[in-house]
Specification:
With 256 residues, this protein is of the alpha/beta class. The chain has a single domain, classed as Aldolase class I (TIM Barrel). The protein is 43% helix and 15% strand. The protein has 11 helices and 8 strands. It has an 8-stranded parallel beta barrel with strand order 1-2-3-4-5-6-7-8, surrounded by 6 helices. Helix 3 links the parallel strand 3 and strand 4. Helix 7 crosses helix 8 and helix 10 packs parallel to helix 11. The protein binds 2-phosphoglycolic acid.
Length: 256
Amino acid sequence: MPESRRKTLIAANWKMYKTAEEAVAFVRAFIPLASTHRHAEIVLCPSPTLLPAVVEAARNTSIRVAAQNMHWLDQGAYTGETSPLQLKALGVTHVLIGHSERRQYFNETDETVNLKLKSALAHGLVPIVCVGELLAEREANQTTAVLERQTSVALTGIDPASTGPLVIAYEPVWAIGTGRTATPEIADEAHKIVRAQIARSLTPQVAASTRILYGGSVKPENTASLCTLDDIDGALVGGASLVEASFEQIVANSAA
Ligand code: PGA
């Protein structure tokens, strides 16, 4: 499938920032721009407590809302967790799975990523599965092996015939929040490794239609050079998505 058939996706990962009031002010100011940029699907990923307010503020617009995490079960005695049913009931459409901060600080593993991915697909939530190597892994020439492992374990047991829209975010851990962006060449090479693994784990057709986003110090100035590459289908933006003007510029530059 040619690259042009994959719609660009730009996601704002707000992490543990913003109050509900600040989040709603952002969405209100952002709505006029979202309607002028039809080239990109725009997804905001706020903290769980902000989800109802952000869903409400974005109602009847093209802006979509993602949770930053979820449990894989529908319900149960799991204090502090959020279920896919609860997210669906709020109007949440997407979910981040396996962000490196969750892997690093909250013991998320390739296996729990797999459970969450299966659950998201079963519930019709669009999963944005994060993969990416540590600096030490890159320096030890393990990048390919790490990306293949993370992708193949995430996709284990998934029926290609019933896969809904699937999004993968390649986020090299050494580029997250460090100001050190992967060069377009490094990102492109990693995206090709991930896409080839999707083809082996599922089918070439699913691989061709899966959007692979780049994340890690994306800024207005580096968006265009990343997004023009065939295998880069958008961006997952942390720090630079918190300020409306810079996120607007990233969405605009992703069309370049
Ligand atoms: P960053 O974060 O853009 O601040 O590097 C990206 C992410 O963690 O998704």
